[in-house]
Structures are given as structure tokens and as C-alpha cells.
Amino acid sequence: MSLKKIFIVMMCACLIPAAFSCKKQSGETIKIGAIFSVTGPASFLGSPEAKTAKMMIDEINGKGGVNGKELKLIVKDSAGSPEKAISFAKQLIEEDKVFAIIGPSTSGESMKIKSICEEGKTILISCAAAEVIVNPVASYVFKSPQNDRFAAQKIYEVMKKMGITRIGVVSSNDGFGLAGKGQLEKLAPASGITILISEVYDKKATDLTGVLTKLKAKNVQAVVNWSIVPAQSIVAKNMKQLNMKVPLFQSHGFGNIKYVKEAGEAAEGIIFPAGRLLIADSLPDNHPQKALLMKYKNDYESKYGEDASTFGGHAYDSLLILVEAIKKAGADADKEKVRDAIEDLKGLAGTGGIFNFSATDHNGLDINAFEMLTVKGGKFVKYE
Amino acid sequence: MAMKKYSPVLALVICVIILQAIASLAGREYYLTQLTMSAYYCLVILGLTVLMGYTGQISLGHAAFFAMGGYTTAVMTTRNLIEMQGSAAVDLAVRLGLTVTEKNAYGVEILHLSPWVSLVTAVCLTAAVAFFIGIPILKLKGHYLAMATLGFGIIIYRIVLGSRIFGEADGISDIPQFALAGGLAVSGDPALRVQNYYIAAVLVVAGVVLLMNLVDSRVGRALRSIHGSEEAANAMGVNVARYKLLVFVLSAVFACIAGVFLTHFNGGVGPSEADVMKSVSYLAIVAVGGMANLWGALVMGILLNYLSLRGYFGSYDEFVFGSILIVIMLFFPNGLLKMENFRWLSDAAARVINSYRARGGEGKDGLS
After folding, report:
1. Min Cα–Cα distance to chain A from B364, Å
2. What are phi and psi of A104, to 5 degrees?
3. B34 contacts in A (CB within 8 Å)?
4. CB–CB of A112 and B105 under 8 A?
5. Contact B174 A79 (CB under 8 A)
6. Which of A43, A144, A230, B186 lies 20 to 30 Å from B210 when distance is taken between CA atoms?
7. Can you tell me the distance from the alpha carbon of B21 to that of A156, in angstroms, rounded to the nearest whole number?
């Protein structure tokens, strides 16, 4: 009995210095928090984001870290719930005392923790697209994905060139679809486009002939579908079945080759805006994003055995922005100096485009971040 | 008698104070954040315990009542009335002191309705909805009642997800603080953390005392008789329909108040609060707490919510709550925190004490 007791006491005695030594090590590392919805309804965003972030951190640490310090990533799975994102953000800021937070994956969660990070003076680089995240500008809050507005503008530019003025819009009833629908409706008058009909369908819809028949009856010159769900392939197939010969435009949500495969023949000729990740192979060699895109794509695909998506790219960009700013600010820079350094980043090539930050622009991307693509022979190619 | 009845409440109050003291002394007050959030979820669970455990009526729609509270206050207090100033209704509200003027983080002046107004509105609205929904669906029993409440939960979830006024998938952000009386405010501000912890604790203690007395009254006995057999209760002159409705509305109001307070504490609300999985996790906690056991539900509610909110379950959160429900239903239908389940423990303790006494006695004998 007493032997056992002595043994336990000794074990505890051994653990105490071990616990302290853990504390000591953390002085040499830079802690980065990450809130991604790895599970839940937004897992198609969070899962590739978390994988990308882990891959990048390993690579950076393998090369000796940043400014001689090791990076430590703390990933939290919010499952897309704002209350969890709030809880995790507070935990990361006050308890783990992280240097910066990457994520969250969705706009709703990002908006919930925007003021928490601002008050906690911790850098937040969101992986969500909504413009409200950086407008009004909060000094510690940034985002890496392109604005939806630019995607809509890009579509309208192409329509203008094609002489299209009367269109029909269909969108899914989720955050992505409704945000896009709002932008399309807002920008239409200025671009000389008339939206004859705008229909919303359920994000789990499996047949859209009913919706499309209404569009056909209105004699639209083009159809725009804005969603991020399998319905993107269904729209294309149903249009073919209904013998609708007008061009089909999709949002940047179409940027995943699996939707092309699902739609088969019907996908040919779909026009959509997207970041350059999807056409990395066919970019000219002197393009500033080419080398980085090819590397990310090859690394991700060889490590995880699945296609790289633009969503994972958002996490890549967020982390890239942070790391570049830390490098630029120097070895003992505090959060505030790194924050200033982000605003000074110019011409930084990421997966989403070329970032040019300023005190008033915390996104740093412009309309050129999008490229118009089309489907040819079952592949994504640049639209010309 | 009263002493004995309230001694667990006293123990709870002492626990609350000790937890805060330890957290503050250790310089780790941040633990109180998740404890505060868990306490609000516990209010829902306490209400549900009386409905499910004592009265035997299942509900898979309580997340919806919580969301109704949260969203009502969110919508009412985030609307900036400044441009509507001059209209008769707004001016009247200002004159009656029902509004709050403040500057937001970006220096924009905001005039919004006082959260007191939205709290009262939310409670009335939720009680009314629970009342009118309760009349038809509480006629159902067992699986059918579960299905009906599930359906109600899904409807509310789809409404918040699909309505622009509720922010659709993004929910509502930048919800102002809820200034109570005497400088107390429900807010996520780290400087107000300790007082918020106590605000939540006071609500929970008040809820427990209220429900304890309810359960221990004529009404409580009627509720338990309904749980036993509705027909028998009816035959004994218990107005079954009325009591079931009363408890359903009461538990909905508990959920609603929790929703209002947590929404102001978090500063935001999203559709995940109305998610059916949330209702399932409340139900799992009531089950694991021992069904008709307020204290069990309270302990489990704090513990499991705390672990979940701190991310200890990682990506397996829903899996954990789902499997808890299955395991409890299969192996511990009376809940985990029931005295019977600890009989082996007390037996073992008694054996140890007895043998110790026996040996001690021998030793004494030997000495003498």
C-alpha cells in the first residue's frame, strides 16, 4: 500500500517538471488558432481548409519555421455553429493567447467573432466571402476570399460582350445562393441587364425542370445559376432535357470538376468565374500565380488523394498572408506590428489572386482575381 | 423540514461561489465564459426535465423555443431606429424609456429597443406559440408526440434559415448588451465576465427553486400521476390536458428566457441554435441526468455543455450526444445519475468502513 503511494507521488513529481517544460517550449513558438467547420453543413468548406492549413504548417516547420520560431496550429471544429465559434474564439484569444486566428469558414460565424477579435486585439483572417466582414473595416479583421460582387460583375461583362440583356436567375436557398442572387440583382441595372425572372430552389433539389420551364416561358437569353450544391449539375442536365439552347452561366461555386463529371455532356459550354487554381496547368509560365498554384495543387493532391478546391485555397491564402506579414514585421514583432504589416502587403500572389492590402481594403483582391472559365471536353479551360 | 429541502440549493450556491473563487484566484477567469454559456443551456434542460422526466411528455422541439427567444430579441434590438425617429411610434417608445441609445464599435449612433421589451415580447410570443401548438399535439402520445414536436422543430429551423429578417444562414450579429438594473449587464465583454457568471447562476438557481417547488406541490403530484397513467390520473380527477399544457408552456418559456440571455451574452445568434440536433442533445442530457431528476440534469447539463463548448469532443460532438442517448436508453433507462446505479459504490464504501471499524476494534481490543 505505502509502496504504491510512494510510486504515485513520484509519478506526480515527474509530471510537474514535464508540465513546466511544455510551458517553456511555447515561448519559442507562434500559436495560430484555426476555427473551421470541418463537420456539419459547411464541411465542404471547412474540411479542405483544415487539411490545407495542417499541410502548410508542417511544411513551414519543416523548413525551420518563421523567423526561427516554430508555428503551432490549434484547429477547432465549429461544425458551422456560431455559438461554438464564439466560444472557441474567446478560448483561443484569452486562454491559448494565440497570435492570430484563421477562419471561420462561413460568413455567419465570421461576423459573430469579428468584434470579439477586434476587442481582443487578435488578428483574424477569415476564409468566408461576405463583404460585411471587412466593410466596415475593423482594424484587426481581414479576409482572403474574393468578393461575390466581382464574380457577378465578371459574368455581366461577358454577357455584355455576347449581347445578352434579358436573363433568368436561379439560386439555391442557402447563404451562398442568396448572397449571389442579391449581388446579381443589385448590379443588373448598372450593367444594362434585365432580370426577367428570379427563382429560388431548395439546396437539396434533385429536379429543376419545373423552375426552368418558367424561365423558358419568359424567353430568357441566358440562365445564371448561383449555388454551391449538386443542383449545379442538375440545372445543366435539365436544360438539355428541356432543349433550352441559351448559354448557362454558373457562379464560382461550380469550380469543382466533380460537378462537370456529374453533368456529363450537358456541362459543355457552361461559363463561370473562378480563381486560377482550376486552370493552373494552362496559365502562362510567367504568370505570378503559376508556380504557387501548381505547387499547392500537387502537394494537396498527392498528400490527401483528392482534388484541390478553391476553398482549401482560402485557408492557404489566409495563412500565407499571416506568415508573410510576420516575416516582414521581424522577429519580435507584436500583434499590432504584424497587423500593420498586413496592411502594407502589396503584390502578394496567393491562390485567389494578387493581394494588395491597404488601411481601407482588408481583402486586397480586385475583379482581376476572377478569370472566366468554360467547360470544353470535360475540362475547365479559360473562356475566350 | 425546509432546511433539509433547501440544503442542495445551498450546496449549489456554495459550488457556484467556490468555482468562481478558484477560477479568479488561479487567474483563469476565462473558464467562466463557457460555464456561463452552459448555465443558460441548463435552463432549457431543467424545463425539459420537468416536461419529460416528471410528466412523461417527450419534446424534440425545445431548440426551437430557445431559438424563438434568441431570434426575437436579436431582431428587435439590432434594428436601428434612428432614421425612423419622428414617427409617432418611435417617439412614444423613446418617451416611455423603452429604447437605448449607444454608439457601436464603428462610432455609428444607434437607437434600439430596450432588451427588456424584447424579453417580454419573446416570452409572450413563445408562451402563445407553445400554448396553441400544445393544445393539438399534446393529445398525441409516445412516438406520435415525438414526431409532432420534431416537425415543429424542423419548421422553426427552416423559417430562421429561409427568412431574410432572421439573417438566413448567417444569423444575426452585433447584438447589443442587455443592461439589467444597477449597472449589471448581460454582455460578452471580458471585463463583465464575473458578473455575467453570477447573472446566469442566479437564473439557474431561481429556475431550480421554482421547479423544485412545482414538482413538490399538488401540481407536481398531478404531473407524476400523468406520467404513471393518464387514464388513472384522469379518473382521480386530474385535469390531464390542462396540466400537460401548463408544463409544456412553462418549459418553453424556460427555453425562451435562456435563448434571450445567451443571445445577448454571445452577441449573436445563428440557425444552428434551432437545429434538431440541438434538441436531441438536450434530450440526451435529460436522459443521462436521470429523467425525473432535476439535480442530475443540472450536473450533466453543465458538464456536457461545458465539454462540448470547449471543443473537447472535437469533430465527434453530435456522435457523442447521439451515442449517449443510445447507451442510456439501452442500459440505463432510468438515467445514469440515479441512486440505484451507485448502490455498488455505497455498498463497497460500507464494506470498507465496516472492515476498517472491525479492524480498528480488534486493535483496540489488542491494546487493552
Report:
1. 22
2. -70, 175
3. 87, 91
4. no
5. no
6. B186
7. 61
Residues of chain A with pLDDT under 70: 1-27
State whether B311 and A84 contact (CB < 8 Å).
yes
- Which residue of chain B has the CA closest to A135? B106
Q: pLDDT tens, B233-259? A: 999 999 999 999 999 999 999 999 999
pLDDT tens digits for range A155-212 = 999 999 999 999 999 998 777 888 889 899 999 999 999 999 999 998 788 899 999 9
| Per-residue b or e along B204-216, where b marks 16 or more CB atoms closer than 10 Å to that residue's CB | bbebbeebbebbe
CB within 8 Å: B171 and A114: no
A181 vs B contacts (CB less than 8 Å): none
A350 SS3 class: coil
- Report residue A374: phi and psi, to 5°: -145, 170
- The residues spanned by each domain of chain B are 33-77+115-313
Would the pLDDT of B339 be above 90?
no
B 53-92 residues with CB below 8 A of A?
Answer: none
Which residue from A81, A94, A138 is facing B270, i.e. has the nearest CB?
Answer: A81
**Calpha distance B321→A87 (Å, rounded):** 19
| Helix (H/G/I), strand (E/B), else coil: B47 | helix
Chain A hits for B174, Cβ within 8 Å: 111, 115
CATH annotation of B33-77+115-313: 1.10.3470
Give the Cα separation of A311 and A351 in Å (integer): 10
**Rounded Cα gap, residues A202 and A172, in angstroms:** 6
Q: Where in chain A is the domain with CATH 3.40.50.2300?
A: 30-146+293-366, 148-274
Determine contact: B227 vs chain A, CB below 8 A: no
Confirm if A296 and A47 have CB atoms less than 8 A apart: no
The CATH class of A148-274 is alpha beta
CATH architecture, range A30-146+293-366:
3-Layer(aba) Sandwich (3.40)
CB contact under 8 A, B171 and A119: no
How many CB atoms are closer than 10 A to CB B307? 15
Give yes or no for A131 touching B (CB within 8 A).
Answer: no
Q: Which uninterrupted H or E stretch holds A271?
A: strand A271-274
Is B171 touching A (CB cutoff 8 A)? yes
DSSP string, A60-104: HHHTT-BTTBEEEEEEEE-TT-HHHHHHHHHIIIIIS--SEEE--
| ipTM (interface pTM) | 0.89
Query: From CA B170, how far away is CA B164, in angstroms rounded?
Result: 10
Q: Are A166 and A220 in contact (CB under 8 A)?
A: yes
Residue A99 backbone dihedrals phi, psi, to 5 degrees: -75, -40
The average confidence (pLDDT) of chain B is 89
